[in-house]
Amino acid sequence: MARSARKRTAAAKPLLKPPTRIGKLDAAAVIGELRQLHEEAEDENIGRMPADDELYGALLYLEANAGALKSEMVRREAAIARVRLWEYIRERADLHQSRAIEHARAAGAEWTELTPALAVNAPSAAYNKSRRLQAAVLSETSRVDQPLRRTPEAVREAERIAAAEAAAQRRVEEEAARRHALLSPVARRLLEHRAGLNEDDDVTFWLDQIEAVLPSCHTATQLVSLQRYMEALIRELTRVERTGRQAATTENARLAFISAVELVTK
Prior knowledge:
The protein is built from nine helices and no strands. The radius of gyration is 31 Å and the shape is elongated.
């Protein structure tokens, strides 16, 4: 019976299941626990063991002196811990090697120079390997739930999506900054003539919020917050007017209120 043809998966298609990873780990703390085991076993060479944060050197020491642990159970637990730490190093290596490639390229390095450093035989292979390594960086920093395939196509698609998201965020921030340039003087005018506004608890609350955020309104979050606070204030003052009372009791406060309504309702 003829074997059915195997479907070829698109190179840029996300993985169906995330790979199992060690992820975040307090490696220095694990090394400290292994050091304690060797001290309790009275390892005579323990004074030569590198510091806990010198992960690679400490692992080489623990490997060379594994026989100092007297108990078979302790040796087994220590060896499993070393396996875990080496896997952690393997996962982090891709991330840091990719960053090193970025730094080399930023410093003017050609792919021909990176070819032997990446243990490949051609500049094109060096480029392709760098793209596969970039998957580690994108997986580390991306907010996308689906993990990347380690292919140049998948990395390019992820970079395209990340660039589009960054551009959209920049547009939001630019629009918030534009609105703030219009909104800020109107908000200040309302605060200057606050005594002429017909305050109740809700109006007072939103005026206090505006007064708190306005002096240090710089970040995108603060800019958006000011917009929302102004909208809420105008909503509450409009509600006051619907009850038959005036939103403002002085001419300056009334003009400030009208300017704010016109701007917020655009």
